[in-house]
Amino acid sequence: xxxxxxxxxxxxxxxxxxxxxxxxxxxxxxxxxxxxxxxxxxxxxxxxxxxxxxxxxxxxxxxxxxxxxxxxxxxxxxxxxxxxxxxxxxxxxxxxxxxxxxxxxxxxxxxxxxxxxxxxxxxxxxxxxxxxxxxxxxxxxxxxxxxxxxxxxxxxxxxxxxxxxxxxxxxxxxxxxxxxxxxxxxxxxxxxxxxxxxxxxxxxxxxxxxxxxxxxxxxxxxxxxxxxxxxxxxxxxxxxxxxxxxxxxxxxxxxxxxxxxxxxxxxxxxxxxxxxxxxxxxxxxxxxxxxxxxxxxxxxxxxxxxxxxxxxxxxxxxxxxxxxxxxxxxxxxxxxxxxxxxxxxx
Length: 346
What we know:
The protein is mainly alpha-helical. The chain has helices spanning 14-20, 24-28, 54-64, 77-80, 178-184, 200-209, 221-229, 233-241, 248-260, 268-273, 282-294, 326-329; strands at residues 94-95, 108-109, 163-164, 171-173.
């Protein structure tokens, strides 16, 4: 269930996976003699309202991998954000797209969620997916690495830097809280993790009664050690926050703290720019040359983060299928309006 991997410098969408067949070495682990590429990653930005502590980190790690955080005990954050493939989702379940009909041109690849359940948590038939697991209309992006530096998250940027406590409506983090904004969204989604009408009282009650990671196996050493001394979620929240209250804000703070510690900065790329000329292969060097000479990839994928964290209109798909960034900004003419294909999005 658990695995953590070195840094992937690219969040691989389905289109990017196809590009791997053309320039495999570079898109997996790139390097450059460009001065910008020799810069190391900057320090991870941490909002003052949510400083990193070890107690919060371990709580966040447990919550991230907790299938009991979903209404039906089937889905954890890590079910879709899989570290061994760069924090993305390699599965390819189909979503029927805007026309809601499978097998037509607007079908997309999403991420698998939960089977539909009513407000009593009883399985009910979904009009599109029937009794099978529902599928999101955009596939899960990476949850670690460069996401810690992004001002806005999700493919359309709706998880904003300003984090608002969903229970109180108060601004919890004025700026730099995109990870917090993103972390809590799937928990109440009746496609991704929740029954219909789930609220934070439901989540709170479930965690108060759950045995942490009771459904998990092969726990890593730090998690197993934490659960020896803290056997309940109220105890874990007490160690992380000073009292045992379980709140949406604290769930977001803990998961975001865990994610901010997952910065892959010991890759072949990092060793290369630190002076180890053998860290990258000849094939990777050829890939970099091809990127520079034959593509426009570096217009957006600038090292050392290999992203500019902006939203670009790349002309796909037709606006009638997915408005992308426009759904958030309501601005169809924005310079960085993002109309990514739905199978790149979540």
